[in-house]
Design goal:
Two copies of one chain form a homodimer. Chain A is an alpha/beta fold and 331 residues long. Helices cover 35% and strands 17% of the residues of chain A. The first copy, chain A, has helices at 20-28, 53-59, 77-88, 105-114, 152-165, 177-183, 197-204, 228-238, 265-276, 297-311, 318-321, 324-330, and strands at 6-11, 33-38, 63-66, 92-95, 118-120, 139-145, 169-173, 212-216, 242-247, 284-290, 315-316. In chain A, the strands form two sheets. Chain A has a six-stranded parallel sheet with strand order 7-8-6-9-10-11, sandwiched between helices. Chain A is globular. Chains A and B meet through helix 7, helix 8 and helix 9 of A and helix 7, helix 8 and helix 9 of B.
């Protein structure tokens, strides 16, 4: 759907978290990213060759992928100059931003003139059904978090990689723009109309072989005042057999909500399990995924052991250690 | 916004619940409804004069309000003939259906030709913010249900009526098409984009006088596999000080989900309270509203007393008894 390879546009990312789209592509489909383009003030770095548009075209880039969340919901003039240059140089543009490429007349005009395509992967292109809650064949695993942006997508992708290495049947199911840009398909859940959220998740994870696992990308958090409804729809639409708890231990408050503490892992376990049993009485919490990127190796090891002891569940950082023990916990 | 009085169109409603839009207008704004129009097979009755289009126009009807949920999500040809006749006779049409009037070329053409207006109240007309979870001034009461269509809107409207009778500051806040058609404003929550659901509820219930109560119309149920995400957004966006539990005691399974039992009132109380505390630690469950329409007076009295004894909370059917005790419980 989107032509590879990509030039990852990092813009003026204020911090690495703002560039999580680019980071996801870099980590999970490194072959698809041949360079990065950063503007003044950019505080993200994918450790790819820095390229301007002519260099990227010379290197064979087919699509400029906007790998960063924009500030204030507006595509700035500083961005526009680069994006129009890319179109004029023969590249497509792919974006998961809320403010759509197609709503920017100058980008549309430049794309039309150059015969290039603007991909807005955030916009649903399917008419989703209303959820019916019926039990489906096959197995499903859902990552749920104490907060947004704690590693739910990474966890699911790492489990898929490990399962494929073992020859297991497994499919990562993207529910956000990064996952969709990485895999070329999925549901842009936060852009779905409220009534169809759970139905879109059912649509994304249909009947399958009894030994096939869907690894469903989580979104938001049941404890996040802005996005909890999206998470709720994933829990009921996803019909998980296995839940993985995801956590970032250095977060001092909920992302974007300075007045809100993080919930405990115990609270997440009990709340998510209670709600998930509604659609699948056999669901179990099978493991914990902790994003220890902000900790030293030693501190991470200590923390993971502490959490494992306290919670009585396999506890790993899949980025540091792989997802072997989480996959073991499924079987 | 919508010109009154109304002719309530009941179409071929398969059962009284399907006509809950009409019933709500009939019960809460009876002065605005001067007649009903029923097609063959209609199983709903508002006990208003039956009128065809010429009779309704003679009686002064300005707007035909579609008071029934249509079957299969399609506006049938049988409906079309009546709707076009209404437009040609000089009436506007107002609808809360998912399939929009504006998406039907023959209706649009007839409205254009006659110079009439098609009101699709289901479509959001506001660019809602993302929720910020900040504490707001004023008080809020939210109705939550064991299921969909158990009387949440009625409960909030009955409480508003009682509070106004006492001279209290209170505003019913509509979150569904019926409530919007009744009050002329609100948020069509089930049609809002996922990311903005909780924000739209914050927008609907802004800072207010310390002694002002918003009576927020509930939607769906935390236990309904299709719509729980919408309910979750109401709980976090609504920031309730008081929760009212709503229940319909003769329901044998969740509405539209034959495989799903209803949760207990205890489960609803504990689950909703736990989630609501996230945004307002002082929230309390203050009362229970039971829709006893399907029970005799005696059976209702016995059941309400049983639930009140079991749950230790004021328990009433506001339709039969008014909302006096629920309002008492707020103060």
């Amino acid at each position: 759907m989107i032509d590879a390879p990509y030039l990852l546009f990092l813009g003026d990312a204020p911090d690495p978290l703002a560039a999580k789209v680019a980071q996801g592509i870099r980590d999970w489909r490194p072959d698809m990213a041949i360079g990065q383009l950063r503007l003044d003030g950019c505080r993200a770095d994918m450790h790819l060759p820095d390229m301007d548009i002519p260099a990227a075209v010379d290197a064979g880039a087919k699509t400029l992928v906007i790998g960063v969340a924009n500030r204030g919901g507006v595509i700035s003039q500083a961005w526009k100059a680069v994006l129009i240059e890319a179109l004029e140089a023969g590249m497509d543009i792919a974006s998961g931003l809320h403010n759509l490429l197609r709503d920017e007349p100058d980008l549309v005009a430049a794309a039309d003139k150059a015969g290039r395509t603007l991909h807005d992967v955030r916009v649903p292109t399917v008419k989703y059904p209303i959820a019916d809650g019926k039990r489906r064949t096959g197995k499903r695993c859902l990552a749920v978090g104490t907060d947004c942006s704690v590693g739910k997508m990474y966890t699911a992708l790492a489990m898929e990689r490990e399962m494929h290495a073992r020859g297991m049947k497994a499919t990562f199911r993207a529910t956000g723009q990064t996952g969709i840009l990485i895999t070329g398909g999925g549901v842009p859940l936060d852009a779905v109309i409220a009534d169809f959220m759970a139905g879109s998740v059912e649509w994304l994870t249909p009947d399958n072989d009894p030994d096939h696992w869907d690894l469903i990308e989580g979104q938001g958090s049941l404890f996040h005042a802005s996005y909890s409804g999206v998470t709720m729809a994933l829990i009921h639409g996803g019909q998980a057999d296995a839940l993985i708890l995801c956590h970032e231990p250095t977060r001092t408050h909920m992302r974007g909500l300075p007045d809100y503490d993080l919930p405990t892992l115990e609270d997440l376990r009990d709340t998510a399990l209670h709600l998930a049993r509604r659609v699948n009485p056999d669901v179990a919490v099978v493991g914990i995924s902790v994003n220890t990127a902000a900790l030293s190796e030693d501190a991470a090891t200590v923390l993971l052991a502490e959490i494992e002891e306290r919670m009585g569940l396999p506890t790993v950082d899949p980025f540091r250690q792989g997802a072997v023990r989480l996959v073991d916990a499924l079987t």
